[in-house]
Amino acid sequence: MKKLLLAGAAMMLATGALAADLPVKAPPMLAPVYGWTGFYIGVNGGYSWGRANTSIAPLASPFPTTAFAPFHQSVDGGLGGGQIGYNWQLDPKWVVGLEADIQGTGERSSASLVAVGPRFGAFSSGLPNPFPGPDFNAIATLATSLSYDLQWFATFRGRVGLLATPDSLLYATGGLALGDFKYSAATTLTSTVFGPGSAGTTPTGVVLALPVGAAASSSDTRVGWTVGAGIEHKFTPNWSGKLEYLYMDFGTKTYFSGTANQADVSFHDQVFRAGINYAFSPAPVVAKY
Prior knowledge:
7% of the residues lie in helices and 67% in strands. The protein is mostly beta strands.
């Protein structure tokens, strides 16, 4: 009996020693899941492609003139600024938020237009002659100089996003846009005299210049709307980078009503920018299995 007990104890010791030598499987690594809820601030920079559509009112004048045709003017330039916002992570897949940003821009452009009118009977001075004689005629030319300047803009938007991965957010955005838009114009009418007779084509050297539209400038804050989309990726619990596209429309405004510079100017803009955000969020949440 004693021998049996000793043999059993030896077998148990040997089994325990073998078990101690077997490799122990480590518990699985738990992947961190970044939380998106909370405030954030950031900076951004990019480029914008603006378009000003301009319709200049016909000039009321005793001179026969030709009106300027409506035209489109590109108003492009770089931009930079900052943003602030707040996100709410609704569940593992959906994030909603609010964001405001303000941008300084280099969007500047200018244009010069010329419209040549028909030949008309004139005095030797270049003024229209209601009773054309056999000696002179003239041609009236309108010239205008225009400038466009989007000095800054700001947007106030909502965001709705889908987490493609726990650290990558695809989102759509839209809301209110404000922009400080400056428009300037100056128009001049010239009457060039020709002869001999009412159909002669030899210049007499007489040119009558009239600043019918004295230089005028207007700068005001225009209100519009914006929509866009983007992608944001978290590199750490607090730092993320984003790429974003926005379309902004500031509608149409009439400038210098009742003058020779009167014009309707609409403006829209397309913005592409990259940014970096810092989130005031707690440590990453650990995924549960």
